[in-house]
From TrEMBL:
It comes from the Bacteria. Belongs to the aldehyde dehydrogenase family. InterPro entries: Ald_DH/histidinol_DH (IPR016161), Ald_DH_C (IPR016163), Ald_DH_N (IPR016162), Aldehyde_DH_dom (IPR015590). It comes from Paraburkholderia graminis (strain ATCC 700544 / DSM 17151 / LMG 18924 / NCIMB 13744 / C4D1M). One of its GO terms (molecular function) is oxidoreductase activity, acting on the aldehyde or oxo group of donors, NAD or NADP as acceptor. Keywords: Oxidoreductase. Residues 19-468 form the Aldehyde dehydrogenase domain. This is Aldehyde Dehydrogenase.
């Protein structure tokens, strides 16, 4: 599989691949990618704008479905090399990479189906007045993607954008430029008009910032940190864009006294260390009923310590490398600061090289305002806290600026539902964690974001509703009743 990656603008692959992308498990260069500037961003916007304004792409639902189905087919034909590239470039385990590619392909197919059903509605608000609500494509969408799940996070924005009839500019994180370009190359097919999808690669955010400011971009679909999300919201204010923001989280797992702690501790350990703890929904805080705290301490330490840290490409590894050495060092420094302040350090993570490896840390703490119970620490770090009552559990879980996801562990189904309703999170799992589906809307309450991706509602981020009103009148001889 070709690895060097170029920009794709107005249907042409362009630019000189000069920046290296490397494998975080061993530092080896995997390939090179283009370094874009603001002129490249302007060219990509102008191509996307032109195709949106001057072709029937937005009205041709069957063509859009066809393009999406062909994309899914092309991805499927290369699924194994794509999964291997994803593992090499991101560090995640090969099992997780294969799962991500399968989920991404399935999601493309889901939106291919929906492309044929972007339905509005018609009402008659007064006799003889017909109001048609058309759901129209919003225009040009800029899709800014992080590195942690670059395949599925690309698809969950780009597929609904294309299904809805938008044209798009994709801007991945530098660290996962090669896998993104490899996936976009699978979209290069005759049915897709030139400029309907454009790709901009860069190290940093100069081109991305230009997309956010541009008056010719109608929608920003951003997945990434809350900090950058806020910056984008401010920068997009002048041009009043539609914003879809999928941001950070600090997911709690609430474990009640009727739970089988021995059985669930290994599942919580995996939920916390998925993608080396670099998943927005990863389990970050385990809140356990005080009667089960001793057992949870022992079982969780055992489960976390038994996970094998090693190169993602080795099928025996449970936890791969972090995204790069700089991130590993930053996470490790924060974890050490947390260990200094926590009531108890139950398991202390260690780094090992030459790759960006870091084993999991578990601390116990009683004070939920501590920075490490509040801030998103994007690595294998978990806190253990206790509660006595349901009310206390919910208050502790809701005591955060985030609201992305949580899980409730109990066999009492009424309690599970009661707690799920009280939690201020976009997703709540019962006796499970980290389950996401193409069909089910995901998104954040509070500072975890705006809008929803996945599911039918994702189309709302890429559409506008137009009201067309016609006074058709009533037939002669029909009495119009007075008020
Ligand atoms: P990040 O915010 O640093 O970067 C994300 C993307 O934004 C990258 O492509 C980056 O180049 C770009 N970017 C950076 N500065 C920008 C600017 N000023 N203007 C426009 N674009 C800019 O995030 P990251 O470190 O790549 O990813 C990790 C974060 O993403 C975590 O906070 C995680 O929780 C979050 N995340 C959220 C979800 C979700 O569904 N809510 C999913 C995955 C990741």
């Amino acid at each position: 599989m070709e690895r060097d990656a170029m920009n794709w603008i107005a249907g042409e692959w362009a630019g000189k691949p000069v920046l290296a992308s490397s494998d975080p498990s061993n530092g080896e260069t995997l390939g090179r990618f283009v370094s874009s500037n603001t002129q490249d961003a302007d060219a990509a916007v102008s191509a996307a704008r032109h195709t949106f304004d001057h072709t029937t792409w937005a009205q041709d639902a069957r063509r859009r479905q066809d393009v999406l189905l062909r994309w899914a087919q092309a991805l499927e034909l290369s699924v194994e090399p794509l999964a291997e590239l994803l593992t090499h470039e991101n560090g995640k385990t090969i099992g997780q990479a294969r799962g991500e590619m399968r989920a991404a392909i399935s999601e493309v197919r889901y939106y291919a189906g929906l492309a044929r059903h972007i339905a509005g509605h018609v009402i008659e608000p007064e006799p003889g007045t017909i109001s048609t609500m058309l759901r129209e494509a919003a225009g040009v969408a800029a899709i800014i993607v992080p590195w942690n799940a670059p395949a599925v996070l690309l698809v969950r924005s780009l597929a609904p954008a294309l299904a809805a009839g938008c044209t798009a500019i994709v801007k991945p994180a530098a660290q996962t430029s090669l896998i993104t370009a490899a996936m976009i190359r699978c979209l290069d097919q005759p049915a897709l008009p030139a400029g309907a999808v454009n790709l901009l690669l860069e190290n940093g955010a100069e081109a991305a910032a230009r997309l956010v400011e541009s008056a010719d971009v109608d929608v920003i679909s951003f997945t990434g940190s809350t900090e950058v999300g806020k910056r984008i919201m401010r920068a997009a204010a002048d041009s009043m864009k539609r914003l879809s923001l999928e941001l950070g989280g600090k997911s709690c797992c609430l474990v009640f006294e009727d739970s089988d702690v021995k059985a669930i501790a290994p599942r919580l350990a995996r939920a916390a260390t998925i993608i080396s703890g670099q998943q927005c929904t990863a389990a970050r805080r385990i809140l356990v009923h005080v009667s089960k705290a001793d057992q949870m301490r022992d079982e969780l330490v055992k489960a976390l310590a038994s996970l094998k840290v090693g190169p993602g490409i080795d099928p025996a590894s449970d936890i791969g490398a972090l995204i790069d050495a700089a991130s590993r060092d930053a996470v490790q420094t924060t974890v050490e600061r947390a260990c200094d302040l926590a009531d108890r350090v139950l398991l202390r993570g260690t780094s090992s090289g030459p790759g960006a490896f870091l084993s999991p840390t578990l601390v116990e703490h009683g004070e939920p305002h501590a920075f490490f119970c509040q801030d998103e620490i994007f690595g294998p770090f978990v806190t253990l806290e206790t509660f006595v009552t349901e009310k206390e559990a919910v208050e502790k879980a809701n005591n955060t600026v985030f609201g992305l996801s949580a899980s409730v562990w109990t066999h009492d189904s009424a309690r599970a539902f009661r707690i799920a309703r009280a939690l201020r999170d976009g997703t709540v799992w019962i006796n499970d964690h980290n389950r996401l589906f193409a069909e089910a809307e995901t998104g954040g309450y509070r500072q975890s974001g705006l809008g929803r991706l996945h599911g039918y509602d994702a189309l709302a981020d890429f559409t506008e509703i137009k009201h067309i009103c016609v006074g058709a009148g009533v037939l002669e001889g029909i009495e119009v009743l007075g008020s």
